[in-house]
Amino acid sequence: MGLIDRLRGRRGSSGAAGKGRGRRGTLDRASGSADLSHLEQFVATRRGVEGYVEPRTTVTETTILLVAADGEWTRRRIDGPETARKLSRDLAVPVYDAQITGYPQRMRDWSARQKAADKL
Predict the structure, then answer these.
(1) The whole model's pTM is what?
(2) Which bin fits 9, alpha (ψ -120 to 50), beta or left (φ > 0)?
(3) What torsion, rounded to 10 degrees, do the Cα atoms 52, 100, 94, 59 define?
(4) 95-97 and 63-67: which strand pairing?
(5) Which residue has better confidence, 35 or 38?
(6) Mean pLDDT (whole number) for 28-55
């Protein structure tokens, strides 16, 4: 069983980990292996990455926002806060609750630089 399978809670056909997967209360799609692969690649190719767990809403599933040391960031869906925290542990990335800590200023600065560069 690979890292992605472990994070998604798959235990094979006899496991009980998939129970309740049919319950969907948002308008968003569920996370997939491409989402997890993207997050792993982001961490592997950047330094100083931190994770920020964003709660599920009526429109969007739980997401994790990864922010690199230079402020570059990416956001992907994740199967829940527990999965986000496990992913962060497995990738050795500190993780915070975005509702409590907010987002780092370097992320906003990076986004502003990107927007300014797009106008040129």
Answers:
(1) 0.73
(2) left
(3) -20
(4) unpaired
(5) 38
(6) 87
112: left (phi over 0), alpha (psi -120 to 50) or beta: alpha
Chain length of the chain: 120
- Give the pair of three-digit tokens for residue 28: 């968003």
Rounded to the nearest 5 degrees, what angle is found at the Cα of 29, between the Cα atoms of 26 and 33? 140
Pairing of strands 95-97, 50-54: parallel
Residue with tokens 């987002």: 103
Q: Return the sign of the alpha-carbon dihedral for residues 25, 87, 12, 31.
A: positive
pLDDT: which is higher, 80 or 105: 105
Please give the sequence-ordered ranges of beta strands (E in DSSP) within the chain, or none if there are none.
Answer: 50-54, 63-67, 73-77, 95-97
C-alpha distances out from residue 90 to 26, 27, 96, 115, Å: 27, 29, 15, 33
Number of neighbouring beta carbons within 10 Å of residue 79: 20
Assigned token pair, 9 = 């809670």
Amino acid identity, residue 72? Answer: E
